[in-house]
Amino acid sequence: MDSAGEVVNDGKITLEGFTVAARAFADKWKRHNLSFPPWSWIPLINRTMLKKEEGYLSLEKIIILSSLEESAEEESLDVTADWSEKEESVDLTVLVQNVEDEAHYYDYHIVYSASYMVPMLYFRGYSSDGKPLSLDVIKRDLPSSSVSLLLESKWTFITQEEHPYLNRPWFKLHPCGTEEWIKLLSESSSSDGCQIPVELYLVSWFSVVGQVVGLKIPREMLI
């Protein structure tokens, strides 16, 4: 059983380990990524009656303003965060309201896959009127480096399917190659071979997966 202080050896993680890793990830994000709202742990009613804690992480209503994309040196889904740092005197709420017709909103959920025994990233985009964004529109919102990853990497392909808990169509990054590249990542970063502390599992995972959707994590989170 994975728990705090233990390590992951084979790229996979148990449900108990995922819960530990999720809380550690959310805590590090909150402390080191102040320009973003925090990830929230959404608890679920356990469906197996095995008394195991179950839930997923949620980061919602992240805004990208398409009118600012062209002037940015590097396009990113944290455009509003960069803007607020550069123009501290600007009321971001007013800014969003003024260009409401150009705002795209994104929700991200990190969900545990019992079949693959790895995390999965589900996401969706929608306009200010709530209309879902197509994958083609979403790709136009992504930074060019993310689009390159989607085209070149064999494991970063996007599919659309029903959200496992919300019963609505969401996009997801398919987890088929996650186990293998987590192994490679842990081997390259650990002197002990293919091992990674449970508490750092999601941080390491998201350092790669987040780039695909334009979300980067601060380096301090990897420590």
From TrEMBL:
Keyword Transferase set for record: yes
Key word Transferase present: yes
Residue ranges the record marks as coiled coil: none
Keyword vocabulary terms for this entry: Autophagy, Transferase, Ubl conjugation pathway
InterPro entries: Atg3/Atg10
Pfam families in UniProt: Autophagy_act_C
Family of this protein: Belongs to the ATG10 family.
Listed name of the protein: Ubiquitin-like-conjugating enzyme ATG10
Natural source organism: Brassica napus
Taxonomic path: Eukaryota, Viridiplantae, Streptophyta, Embryophyta, Tracheophyta
